Fold this protein.
Amino acid sequence: MSELVPVPALATRREFLLTLMCGPLLAGLLGACSVPRRSAAGLAQESGWLTQLFRDRDAVARFGNAYLQAHPAERRADALSAAIHEALLRRQPGALDAADPATAFRTLDAVVRDEYRRGRVTSVDGWLLSQTEARVYAVVALQQPGG
Amino acid sequence: MYTDAIDLPDHSRFDVDLAIIGSGPAGITLARAFANRSTQVCLIEAGGLAYDARVQSLYEGESAGIPYPIAGNRMRLFGGSSNHWGGFCRPLDPIDFEKRDWVPFSGWPFGIEELMPYYEPASVLVEIAPGRFNDKTYWEHATGETIPDPVTGRMQLRYTHFSPPTRFGQRYGDDLKRAANVRVLYNANVTNIASLQEGRAVQQLDIRTLTGLSHSVRARIYVLATGGLENARTLLLSNKSVPAGLGNQHDLVGRFFMEHPHLSGFGEIVVADLRRRPRAFTRRVEADGRAATAAFNPSEAFLRERRLLNATFLAGEAGPYYGYTRSDWAKAPLHMDMLRAARPFLADGSGPVDSARPDLLGEWLGLGCACEQVPNPDSRVTLAGERDLLGLPKIRLDWRLTEQDRRSVVEHMRSLAMEYGALGIGRMLLGVEDDGQWPAEVTGGAHHMGTTRMHDDPKQGVVDRNCRVHGVDNLYVAGSSVFTTGGAANPTLTVVALALRLADHLKTRLG
């Protein structure tokens, strides 16, 4: 999966995220520039684990594409993955350190539920979805053939 | 005793202490409260003891606003509209009684504490007692399931109870028949409330039958209890002494008609793992002989923070989806795709969500909502030009909703979607966009409220806090027409509670 995602050439993951976050595209997207320090290992350097969460990626892509159609400025898998990872790290520093997607998913699930709770939601094809959830679907859509 | 007005000699007259017009839940509750006492009571019903299409046609009228089945959601026979009542019961919420600065014309003359002593005996009458409307622990124990608390701060759970439903005529008719002091006079249409002294006191009720007979009833006290539409029409028809209609000196009778707007197809929820959804969220669960379901209602704090109107949401299981499901319904593929997409968030592990049904994707829930609307003087009942079989002007209803009502509904729908998402139970498809337009299909719940609203100031209400018509010494109104605001609870339980309260007041007055 990771071959579809540009691997950052920056020295550390933290630098990569900060670079993305402080860019004009993501300044509003992410809302914060504080990134916990983390190890270089684990899932943070790839976004493929997100895709692996889903068995029926066509169904996921349906909603991901709908999201991207409404938010064309976010049509970048690396930026979306960074935004998702940042949301996870804000919730649980070290959430991506382990190589186990199940561990990372638990944090993702908590992030998604918390966004519903706090009203960080967006309308996708009529569905009211958490912001991060919609971005996860968008990442999957971009990684589908033709995405 | 029961008396058929058609069998009486023409121009018969009854003299009693208390005349009650209308034998629906309010009228029968009142009459029953006086049964076997010294007070002589005449309970007057326009219809018969059984349904008759010709009699029912007297309820037909003109709908000038949002299309409304004026005859279809009332019943003109003994027992009134309880004969087709769905049985949904819940008290109003405390905030419903308050004067809210964001709700024009809100504020009952009293708070819920005034009605609390009457809700429990009312619950007995509608056969749901004791009410467990807010008791999550009770329902968890009863169902053996954990019922999660809402987590967004926007919503709270309340338990709507289901009456059998009580058909008041069938259930309590024998009580009235046995009571020597109560006469049920049926097939008796009150065509005029005749008043003296420019409407300051009622002298008698003029009654006619569809067979052409004329009778009258005289009483010390009169109670109008013919439902939220007919109460207003009857007062407007009683215009011989007061041209504008009895009690209508300030042009308030018939105004402020309120419903609970029901939106069909406003959204659906899909649920993958049915174990995450307590049965009480989607089914009637039973305990100790009563049935209830959990309803999502906005929290008071959220209503105040966002300055919204009240609402009630109920969900029901509409059907399962399997991996092989093929449906002609356009939404089915959308539902199924969402179940597949959100599967990791809505179910544990990657195995089947139900081991007994390995192909099950999940189910979809149909949603029902009943929403409060702001009291609106332009939403009103008047008299139509066309006349009924008795030669009386038919009713004309102009039901109107406002942008404030719509905005409130849409926000609550979003809250419901957020709640199901935050609890990890489901995802919601909203069929109503926040586009400034009401959906094409808005219906009512046969809840007719506000047309003789209660207010201490005669310039702001038709009846006072005791339900007495302002300016008319011996005329009272019972039923949901006295509601100052409608809240979001089905009104029958409150109608019965108010009738019991009125009975206490009248017992004091009649001695």
Summary: Chain B has two domains: 1-61+74-128+166-257+447-511, 132-162+261-371+402-437. The CA atoms of residues 34 and 41 of chain B lie 7 Å apart. The longest strand of chain B covers residues 311-322. The mean pLDDT of chain B is 96.
